[in-house]
């Protein structure tokens, strides 16, 4: 579990009121929303590069090699950053399961607390994650084909 999730769980354990737990839930929601927005922007950016990952077959070898290097040099750092964000989001999604469980346990300990936490709202959109993963796979395949065609 990440340090962030560890701290959230400690905050939950030391909560004294329903409001404390609600505040923690809001904090978690803000983090997830920021990650989703970042992923959406990255998805838009990467998707705009996909058309240039297909090289024209009629150009002379030197031009193809140059264009391949240009495209790879432009897109590869973006794909690498995208992969890192996907890994981080996957990790946070896993942490959310533990955080929501800790919240539910703490609510049950508090006799005066009748709050309910909507765990489903504390996870990134599965449609967004699927779309992001699909676009990442397409970009990696395009880069692989491009690298193969420019080295032959």
What report would you give on this structure?
- Helix content is 78%, strand content 0%.
- The protein is mainly alpha-helical and 152 residues long.
- It has one domain.
- It starts with a helix and ends with a helix.
- 14% of the residues are buried.
- The model has no long low-confidence stretch (mean pLDDT 79).
Helix and strand layout, with pairings?
Layout: H1 3-13, H2 18-49, H3 61-109, H4 126-151
Helix pairs in contact: 1-3, 2-3, 2-4, 3-4
Provide a brief overview of the structure:
With 152 residues, the chain is mostly helical. It has four helices and no strands.
Distance between the termini: 44 Å
* Helix fraction by DSSP (H/I, runs of at least 4): over 70%
Mean of the pLDDT scores? 79
How many individual β-strands?
0
Structural class: mainly alpha
The protein's oligomeric status is: single chain
Largest sheet composition:
none
Strand portion: under 5%
Quickly count the helices. 4
Instruction: Give the overall form.
Output: rod-shaped
Low-confidence stretches: none
- SSE arrangement, N to C: HHHH
Question: Radius of gyration in whole Å, from Cα?
Answer: 22 Å
Number of domains: 1
